[in-house]
Amino acid sequence: MKLSSIEVIERTGISRATLNNYINLGLLPRPEVASPEANAGTSARQIGYFPEDTILRIARIKALKKQGLAMTDIALQLNAIPRQTNQGPKQSGANMPQAQSEHTSAAAEHHTQAAKAPETGPLRLTIDRVPYPAYMVNYNMELTWYNEEARTALLGSFERLSADIQERRVLDHLAGGAYGSRTDNREALNELHNQMGKHRVANVLGNAALGVTGTLAGVSATPPGPLVELPLSLYAEDGAQENYRVFVSYFREGIFVVYTRDETGHNNLLGLLERRDEVIRNLLKKRLPVLTEVAVMVADLQNSVRICSELPPEEYFELINQIWSTMEPIFRSYYSTHGKHVGDGMVYYFFPQPDCSYILNALRCAFEVHEAMRKISKEWQLRKNWLNELYLNTGLNEGQEWLGVFHVETKVEFTVLGDTINHAARLSDFAKSGSIWASKNFIGKLTTEERGQLRFGVKRHNQEGHEVFVASSYSRVSELVDLDSPRYEKLRDIGGMAITEVVEVTTGKR
User: Fold this and answer.
1) pTM for this one?
2) Which of 122, 421, 480, 487 is least surrounded by CB atoms within 10 angstroms?
3) Cβ(302)–Cβ(433) under 8 Å?
4) Within a 13 Å sphere around the CA of 439, how many CA atoms are in the beta-carbon half?
């Protein structure tokens, strides 16, 4: 006789979240999903069914927990069942391509070895095997990754996330989840994420001096750090209190959140979260592509081929490394993300932020990079006694594009697809002598007050033939250069774009 998930929960007194934890730890098999029987007491189209010995197995788990054993130790003692994955219909070796067959055999061997791990040593927790509800959000509290446990226990059991990042607000999903029907739960979850946000600057920029105040459920917030632990009390529909310990890990790319129950062991989880480089690399590999607003900055070293030919190889690499090491802290301070670029140039993405303008961030960053490059140029002129000027020619553009990641083994790169980055690169090609050029669309995203913090415009010739700077104006690319000239051939695809030169920006140092 099979037992429905509803029967298992009612007869054992555990919550659905705990049931999911037991499944993902391998303590219980994954249920067989089928249409519910007439007397199942649910309106759901499908429901999970477990073997009849499930009640006895849960009783055994409870007994071991009372003895003080952590969940991972219980999994070892009960000879945990390997996790199953939904891989679709299997192919026989005869019908499978050779490369795929070899890959499948290797994967099967790896899985077999993983299943034997409890016999030889402790389990090593990975992102794929986190047995608790977990998700990652950006600093606007929008979902960028989640596991199945979070989807079913917290986020509302949706089929898939919206492609639009603005429709991925985690609090909206939590409000539609299992705990969202109660006002006190929504308030507690709102306060939890408010606490997360208060650590933002301290953890992204490494400013340990930032103070964080506020309480959650009457307990003082943990001081800022790369890993924060927060208590959380939620209530089931029947009024039963369910206590969680929420572990929050901060990265430049976002916030990783794990919900654990008070009675579960956390040694393996803490061990995982301490492996920060591994965690963020794996999370970024799994990051879901999103359609998002983005500002793109492309900066290329002018005459890089000539400079390379004039310098000894070791000095050329020294120069390039100096440029990168000087610019990296500037980019970091304006919440930018490094993108994929070929050659000696730079591509950085600026995404909407909860407490500052991402457009203004890109402008201020470009101007600081421009000033830093002037200092590097003077240093090398004195060092080499040459007349060369070192310039980074910069293009800025903004649009709504798809953001995703490319990854090869340990390397992960953010990539934006679409015309926004291509046009920013063309503006960088157009710029000369270290100038900063931006599209009209980019500048148009600023408020009137924000535009007052910069000086921009286009140089034109007056009736006497003299060049004059016309402030707060734009011009199409086709009016500034002769697109019929082979020299400007690659600018033809932006010939109709209205652009402007940014000559001064209030840096707004924080």
Assistant:
1) 0.62
2) 487
3) yes
4) 25
Would you give the distance in Å from CA 111 to the centre of its chain?
A: 28
Question: What pLDDT, on the 0 to 100 scale, is given for residue 417?
Answer: 83
Band of pLDDT at residue 44, cut at 50, 70 and 90: low
pLDDT in the model for residue 135: 93
- Rounded CA separation 404/388 (Å): 39
What is the Cα 294 distance to its own chain's centre?
Answer: 14
- β-pairing, 290-301 vs 336-338, is unpaired
pLDDT tens per residue across span 135-175? 999 888 999 889 888 888 899 877 778 888 888 999 999 99
Q: What is the CA radius of gyration of the chain?
A: 28
- Determine contact, residues 200/224, Cβ cutoff 8 Å: no
Instruction: Please report, for residues 26, 187, 349, 381, the alpha-carbon distance to residue 182 in angstroms, rounded to integers and kept in the order given.
Output: 31, 9, 39, 67
pLDDT at residue 117 above 50? no
Q: Where are the beta strands (DSSP E) in 62-107?
A: none
Q: Which domains are seen in the chain, by residue range? A: 3-120 (1.10.1660), 127-286 (3.30.450), 290-505 (3.30.70.1230)
DSSP string, 421-455: HHHHHHHHHH--TT-EEEEHHHHHTS-HHHHTTEE
Closest of 159, 180, 280, 316 to residue 236, by C-alpha: 180
Angle formed by the axes of helices 313-333 and 358-384, nearest 10°: 150
Nearest-angstrom CA–CA distance, 180 and 505: 45
170-220, pLDDT tens digit by residue? 999 999 988 999 999 999 999 999 888 776 544 444 432 222 333 333 323
Distance between CA 264 and CA 138 in Å, rounded? Answer: 27
Dist. CA 334–CA 205, nearest whole Å: 10
DSSP H or E stretch at residue 293: strand 290-301
Determine contact, residues 359/351, Cβ cutoff 8 Å: no
* Residue 115 reports pLDDT greater than 50: no
Cβ pair 407, 285 in contact under 8 A: yes
What residues form DSSP beta bridges with 317?
none
The phi, psi pair for 412, rounded to 5°, reads -130, 130
